[in-house]
Amino acid sequence: MSTKHRFQDTKDAVTAKDDASALKPKVVSQSDKRLMELTESIQLAEQIEIFQGTALFVDKDSGEFIGPIAEGTMGIILYAGSAKKIKEDGLNSADAIRIPRLLQLDELLNFHIAEISYHEGIQAEKAADLSGLGGAKCMLRPGKPNYHATIPGGDRSPCYVGFYLSPNAKYSLALVSEKQAWPLEFANYLHQVGYEPKDLYAEIDRFTSLDIENRAVDRSDTLETLLYLPDLRKRKQKNRKAHEEAEINAQKSASKLRSLGRSIIEEAYTRKDVGGWWFNLPICLYSWMTSDMERLLTGLLDDDTTAPPDPGAENSPMSDARLLSSWRPITWLSLARTLTLGLSALHTKGLIHGDPRPANIMAKLSEEDVLLPDHFRWIDVGLGYGHVSSNSTEPDGRVTQTPPAPLGGGRVTPFYAPERVESVEFEDADMVRLSKRSDGYYKLEFLWKRRTYEEPVSLLLKDARGKPLRELGKLGKGDRIQLREFIFDVERVEANHVVVSRIYEVVLDRVLIEHKETENEASIISKLQNVAISRYRVFKQWSQATDIFGLGILVLYMFFIRGLYLRKQYLNKESPSSNHSEFYLEKSSRERIFHELSTLIRSQIFLNGFIAAIKERGKYANKSQLWQKDVLMPLAHDYKREDFTAKANPAHPERIQQIVDHVLTMDANFTTVLMGANRNNGLFVLIIYFCLSCVWRRDEVSDLLASDFPFEPYCDSREIITDKEGRSKPARRAREDLELLCELINAAQINEDISSDELGNYSSEVILRSRNDQMQIALENAQKSKREVQDKEAKISSLEKLLADFEASMRIKDSSLDEFKEQTEKFQQDQQKQKDRIREEEKKARHLETENKRLQDMLTRSQEQLNRSIFRIFKNDSNTKPQK
Predict the structure, then answer these.
(1) Could you give the CA distance from residue 422 to residue 883 in angstroms, rounded to a whole number?
(2) Nearest-5° angle of CA 213, CA 215, CA 220?
(3) Does the N terminus or the C terminus of the chain have fewer Cβ atoms within 10 A?
(4) Lowest-confidence pick of 345-354, 681-690, 774-783, 818-827
(5) Is-contact 287 128, C-beta < 8 A?
(6) Strand ranges (E), 145-222
(7) Percentage of the chain exceeding pLDDT 90
(8) pLDDT higher at 440 or 694
(9) Does residue 242 carry a pLDDT above 90?
(10) What would the pLDDT profile of 845-855 be if each residue is shown by its tens digit?
């Protein structure tokens, strides 16, 4: 069966309308009402065409945007399209226009954000029309006036488009041509500050013409200049209007258009302002997406409207997450395959996503209320910033000069690979020395002192065989080192020094300025000559492996959420009137639990134990033996098909059960993932195997590559793959395994729904506890067993004392021989009985002692694992703590 899994049949079945149901009155939901209101507002709005056939909808008087607005860290998404098409086709014809989010107080930071957005637009444009990717349809580069945008009611002359952005007011649009400005509010402001529209147009045109000339000379494609017209109005009470006008008149000299760029970086660094009109912005056009994966998955658990709606209930609210409620395991795996296709296409283009998490996966819901895996796309596909050549030649001959990549935002999420973390600090060096090499590179030496009064010596980074001795020795091309206010791009690492290709100065903790002039270079070298340092920071480059890591954790997250959803549905079915507030259904609790699972799956102990269980308990020699349809066949007593017992099952399901038992022993919360896989042991094992193949790299598991069961991750290392043929190889490997897994599910015919009986066995008292709680329960059980053993030992001691007293009384007893013999025989019988009882008690005591020892060993191992996990968590927390 095709890996598309007949989703078209599902869609046809959903969209087919019954003649009888067509006669029933249509129920209008709240979302339908909001869409109708939005459509009416758009019909009354002014349409300002930005791209051919795509317009922004704004208020006719103020220019404020009408329609949904979405904001991210770097961009603002504006609702756009054609009013006529939206009225006819609904959201299917809507578009999204993305502009930089320029709301920083420092003008230099605003230019930095615009520069990142410009680079992102260039990359996203390359990802247009690729499967699984939400790339940019097109991009308007800064420069010439917009020939599509014209002033309403005026002549058809082209205009420069400005965007009013301020954290204290609504966003709005402004147009300026050679003759007039629009809207009226913007035109009145220009009149107040004594700025004629023709003068503003001429000034914008002068700056943009210079940019075009500069790009023509060096054949580059970079953001040269950002233009900013500050808003001098003070948004105070209405009775202060006269005071506002006086302030404006006093500041007319400061109202001229400002130019921001790297050529005047020092001047921009000293200016602070917020709120005004921005011109010469990079503008990107995307398809409008309606919902992201994070909200859909969260909605499955948090929304009370995920069940199918009641047709008799008028205006009943409905959640989009309900469209995922009927998805089966093969549907979720097909979604993972779609996402893998997107990463493969992205990597083929030489791009890296860099931010693979559910919030960056979006879908456009169809009008037929159907949500299929093919509807989802990766968004923010151009943010893998700086991981292309700093000077790469485009097919049309342009040289894309990439500005310095940003340092990142410090976000922490389970979906990020270790190198995706902000930075790591080290304190193994006391001094540093920088010098210039003859080949044009720089030599960066790290020094340390054996004693405080001794001369420093070079810190060895690699041994004679080239094996890294410390973290600095593991760095490669593209990694970075921060010393004080300087950032160094690593070219390679020698035995006792680092070869550096570029040097930047860090401004405002985020903006990097490269110093190429001889004077600046000499100044930096003099500053770093045998200078003392307290610490240094390491920033590791992102690569294709970063995206594959996020994909593996994402698949684990899908089945984790599905398992929780099935549990919630069971509880609602058993007790519809109860308010189920089990702690693991709360967002904060389940996020903490999943974070523990994602941390454990990157544990060397978990990986080694899992592979050993496959080899020793499952008796599998290699991956090809494991990835078979027979592995998905469940145990006979769990299977409901009548013909199962009549079939031979060479996979021995009890062996798969032993592998599952081992995983659940490591953390019982994996039972949630098992439930998400319909409690199919084989499917659960293959999902865990897939996730491990994503999050590990071959250079990290070299010992397992040569083991009896060779474990081969999809990525060779964390280093970026520059080879054109090999850069998409990891994503292709992952996609092939997902396609094979879908084929195995179809071949084994196990894609039925999970039964209520199986859901009922899902005990919240046993699973879904934090690892802390699990260790506490194990400790309490061990202490209980220890008390029982102590009680038994006390009883044995009491019997031994009683026997000793009896023997003493017999020795001193004065009686006749017959009586003595009779009593002796009686005593011997009693003694034999006592000995028999003692032997029985001793046997029980030995059994309890053995059990106690086993529990003590288990407790010791659990505590050791807990200590390692706590150590790694604290280490990661301390490593990811932002630098003050």
Answers:
(1) 9
(2) 170
(3) C
(4) 774-783
(5) no
(6) 160-165, 172-176, 181-182
(7) 31
(8) 694
(9) no
(10) 888 888 888 88
Q: How far is CA 665 from the centre of its chain?
A: 27
Q: How many whole angstroms separate alpha carbon 221 and alpha carbon 385?
A: 15
Mention every residue, 6+ apart, whose C-beta is less than 8 A from residue 288: 79, 80, 81, 91, 94, 95, 96, 364
Is 694:594 a contact under the CB 8 Å cutoff? no
Q: Residue 69's beta-bridge partner residues?
A: 78
Strand, coil or helix: what is 232? Answer: coil
Q: What would the two tokens of residue 222 be?
A: 């970079």
* 621 Ramachandran zone, left/alpha/beta (phi>0; psi -120 to 50): alpha
Q: What angle do CA 202, 208, 213 make, to 5 degrees?
A: 125
Closest by CA position to 486, among listed 506, 458, 510, 513: 506
* pLDDT over threshold 90, residue 243: no
Give the span between the Cα atoms of 256 and 203, in whole angstroms: 9
Average pLDDT score, the chain = 80
**How distant, in Å, are the alpha carbons of 131, 164, 527 from that of 544?**
17, 38, 37
Report yes or no: 782 and 859 within 8 Å, Cβ to Cβ: yes
How far is residue 141's CA from residue 284's CA, in Å, rounded to a whole number? Answer: 9
The Cα–Cα gap between 173 and 62 comes to 8
Handedness of CA 248, 250, 255, 260 (dihedral sign): negative
Token reading at 13: 């079945």
390 by DSSP, 3-state: which? coil
Which secondary-structure segment (H or E) carries 230?
strand 226-230
Looking at residue 282, what DSSP letter applies?
A: -
Cα end-to-end span (Å), the chain = 56
Strand partners, 503: 488
| Joined tokens for residue 375 | 């509807």
Task: Single out the residue of 365, 374, 401, 358 nearest to residue 218, CA to CA.
Answer: 401
State mean pLDDT over 777-799: 78
Please say if the pLDDT value at position 367 is more than 80.
Answer: no
**Concatenated DSSP letters for 244-256?**
HHHHHHHTGGG-S
Split at pLDDT 50, 70, 90, the class of 639 is very low
Neighbour count for residue 333 (Cβ, 10 Å): 27
Q: Would you give the DSSP letter of residue 617?
A: I
- Do residues 422 and 406 touch, judged by C-beta distance below 8 A? no
Per-residue pLDDT for 22 more than 60?
A: no
C-alpha 642: how far from its chain's center?
Answer: 44
Contact 235, 168 (CB under 8 A): yes
CA distance 716 to 697: 5
Cα 704 versus chain centre, distance? 27
pLDDT of residue 520: 75
The contacts of residue 861 (CB under 8 Å, 6+ apart) are none
Q: Could you tell me the pLDDT band of residue 733, with boundaries at 50, 70 and 90?
A: very high
Cβ neighbours of 41 (radius 10 Å):
14
CA distance 801 to 794: 11
Give the C-alpha separation, 381 to 85, whole Å: 27
Identify the pLDDT of residue 96.
93
- Positive or negative, the CA dihedral 370, 372, 375, 380 is positive
**Cα–Cα distance for residue pair 9/15, rounded to 1 Å:** 10
Predicted confidence at residue 453, as pLDDT, reads 83
More confident residue, 28 or 224: 224
- Could you give the 3-state DSSP secondary structure of residue 241? helix
Q: What is the DSSP letter of 154?
A: S
Contacts of 466 (CB under 8 A, 6+ apart): none
Nearest to 876 by CA among 410, 480, 533: 410
Q: Kindly report the pTM of this predicted structure.
A: 0.79
Residue 172, by phi and psi: left (phi above 0), alpha (psi -120 to 50) or beta?
Answer: beta
Residue written as tokens 């097909």?
Answer: 334
Neighbours of 101 (CB within 10 A): 19
